[in-house]
Amino acid sequence: SKYVYSFGPGASDGSAAMRNLLGGKGANLAEMASIGLPVPPGFTITTEVCTAFYDNDRAYPEGLREQVDAALAKIESEVGRRFGDKHNPLLVSVRSGARVSMPGMMDTVLNLGLNDVTVQGLAEGAGDARFAWDSYRRFIQMYGSVVLGVAHHRFEEIIENVKLDEGATEDTQLSAQDWHRVVEAYKDVVQAETGHPFPQDPHDQLWGAVGAVFGSWMNQRAITYRRLHEIPADWGTAVNVQAMVFGNMGEDCATGVCFTRDPSTGVNEFYGEYLPNAQGEDVVAGIRTPRPLSKSYAKPGEISLEEAMPQAYAELVRVRETLERHYRDMQDIEFTIQRQKLYMLQTRNGKRTAPASVRIAVEMAESGLIDQREAVTRVNPQSLDQLLHPTLDPKAKKTLLARGLPASPGAASGIVVFSADEAEMRAQKGEAVILVRIETSPEDIHGMHAARGILTTRGGMTSHAAVVARGMGRPCVAGAGGIHVDYGAKTLAAGGVVVRAGDTITLDGATGEIFTGFVPMIEPQLSGDFAKLMGWADEVRRLRVRANAETPLDAETARKFGAEGIGLSRTEHMFFDPERIGAVRQMIMAHDEAGRRAALAKLLPYQRQDFVALFRIMAGLPVTIRLLDPPLHEFLPHGEAELEEVAAALGMGVEAMRQRAAELSEANPMLGHRGCRLGISFPEIYEMQARAIFEAALEVETETGKAPVPEIMIPLVGMKRELDITRGQVERVASAVFDEAGRVLDYSIGTMIELPRAALTADTIAQSADFFSFGTNDLTQTVFGLSRDDAGKFLPKYVESGILPKDPFVSLDIEGVGGMIRIAAERGRGTKGGLKLGICGEHGGDPASIAFCEEIGLDYVSCSPYRVPVARLAAAQAAI
Ligand code: ADP
Ligand code: MG
Ligand code: MG
């Protein structure tokens, strides 16, 4: 079978559609070559080889070597050089490339094919010995660290020493002889560290590098990245081998990285960075400060590529247009200019901030490049979180500490930490941390993830820190050169101000500013492109989106974010209010019904007030109110001191109090005396709540002329009889209230489906229910038979080792819990065709769970207010 796919000018075996087989990089190199862009020829070893490699004890499939030899010969004939030729050597790069880009996870080896002999040939051919020896030392350095595992700093030290000897400050000041010296020292280091001389045979070098790329698929950094991004291990990586082009052959050469639009803001301007006389990762490594691509982004004194190499720049601008038209999305491009000639080395859909993704999607739709439905699919619903992030209050007093590059937007305050491990540790304790590093590397990913914000003192907008932070949605200020970081002393200093580990600073990732101390923040604006995109999403989605809200503030936030009603209002949250808890406890302590009714009468006005507020804000939208759900002991005081205090306040003995608490305590409260079981034991509780709801609804109708739509929800029903009894209670209250008022109101009574028995008998329960709401938090607990409060001890391990693909409390377990929902939905609707179905619980804001809700035809999802935009967009995407 075919393991190797060639690409090159006008003739590629592969295409962009073959991403799974060729990896993203290989597939796009093939595609770019096919559409006539200047791509140096090469070949891709497929991801299937990677999978076979790991399935067969790290052995290659039969026939691979022959196919590689043939593909290599093809490159040789295309560029007119031979691999290992002493006069005219072909050099190649060996590059990894997974299906999805994993920035910095896999290492690239450049200039492969150089040895003590071919370096002479390279020097002769280029007429430039300095360039040849510089390339050779780069090769030994990359190959030495990536393939042979020699510590990077061993090489860096050598360069530093030679520079010191020569009085040079920049790498570019070193001569051919200097680099020759570096090469000799490098070879000694390799010999000393590995016990073997540096490999001289180009074929050995090639297979060593190929093995290292496949090997790196299973290194710790890659594994961590895959875990964080939910990338399956069996996807594997491809290996790309490509003829080298040289950006380090002199001042008419360059290498660069660019985006077809600004990845930070989404503005439709060509955005990028380059370095003259440089190679490969120089731009992103932060060793020299890169220069801007276009004049419009250049600061005074900076020479843009547009000015330095106008022809190559013009060519690049044409490529930008071709690529956007072809891929119909913003591209992230890597290029090299060799003696004024442009070569394309990579393209992929560019990572962008959430604001940029919204702007780009909207502008592309408005310019007709894509349609509105497509625009809706272009924005990751989860990333909307970032747009909803606060920004710094412009009116707040601020003390500027320093400035860097605005690498990833959003504002964050936190205490300064200097290492990724510490960031993770302190974040786990609940502290907000800002990770401060000179520069970041893939080893820091876990700390970046744990941090609220990231600050680096070196590197540009395409540095590791910037790229990763944007991907994660963390605010980031990069390249703040005015700050001096001292890891040893755990301090950072700027302009005479010293900040210590543990001190608070604030970052503004949108402006690049760094402030000392905490700065107040304000809520985001939800207008402009965001509103447009959400409008398009609302046009295509079928699922309604409601919010879980009980306080007026929650309800207002929900409306602002576009909620179409309340799907779950937990009345017990209202019971904890300090003004009311006394009456709640009095009710619990009462010896008889009369005592309970007296206490409940005190609560009634409060509850009515709560519902009046909700009904007003929701102005005629449906409001689902769940009657009391948790076991009563949750409302009792904890600890001796509090117990005594409460006993005194209620005018009862501590002993009696303690005894009542003991009576109420349960072995397994989650499955105990709660939900409708309480309503059946103490009907007066639900009666009070129902009265509060109906009286509030009538009051708001009188006040506004608009009738509220109360949906009363009975929790924890497992049997139809339970619903019949509680429904009867509520209906009797309704008629009493309506009699008193002399008018009636529409309302409905439904139940939560959160027990397997309820799901399985949904056909009979539906006879008494006007709607079902799937309480997926409890349903997950009861279907799995696992308590969420105890799951922390083993669930993370289950997810890590793949027993469960995801935390089922975050993303619905489609197979089990979802299966139960599917049964209940079918059986319920079998009884009542139009039975209204929704879900409430954390899952209502999770895109994957929402897609499932769409699939089985639920009517609405309900989630926390801040997730409402996420749910609206996810519901639209699920419908497309
Ligand atoms: P990554 O996946 O980390 O981006 P790449 O495989 O893209 O790694 O390689 C990194 C850089 O190495 C490229 O951006 C490019 O500058 C340089 N490079 C790779 N292949 C070649 C080549 N054939 N000629 C010149 N430079 C190359
Ligand atoms: Mg890399
Ligand atoms: Mg790259």
UniProtKB/TrEMBL annotation:
Its cofactor is Mg(2+). One of its GO terms (molecular function) is kinase activity. It comes from the Bacteria. The keyword Kinase applies. Its EC number is 2.7.9.1. Mg(2+) binds at E754, D778. It catalyses: pyruvate + phosphate + ATP = phosphoenolpyruvate + AMP + diphosphate + H(+). The active site is at H464, C840. It is an enzyme of class 2 (transferase). Pfam families: PEP-utilizers (PF00391), PEP-utilizers_C (PF02896), PPDK_N (PF01326). The keyword Transferase applies. Residues 431-512 form the PEP-utilising enzyme mobile domain. Transmembrane segments: none annotated. Residues 20-56, 65-290, 313-366 form the Pyruvate phosphate dikinase AMP/ATP-binding domain. Residues 527-878 form the PEP-utilising enzyme C-terminal domain. SUPFAM superfamilies: Glutathione synthetase ATP-binding domain-like (SSF56059), Phosphoenolpyruvate/pyruvate domain (SSF51621), Phosphohistidine domain (SSF52009). Substrate binds at R570, R626, E754, G775, T776, N777, D778. Keywords: ATP-binding, Kinase, Magnesium, Metal-binding, Nucleotide-binding, Pyruvate, Transferase. Belongs to the PEP-utilizing enzyme family. NCBIfam families: PRK05878.1 (NF004531), pyru_phos_dikin (TIGR01828). Catalyzes the reversible phosphorylation of pyruvate and phosphate. This is Pyruvate, phosphate dikinase. It comes from Acidiphilium multivorum (strain DSM 11245 / JCM 8867 / NBRC 100883 / AIU 301). The gene is ppdK.
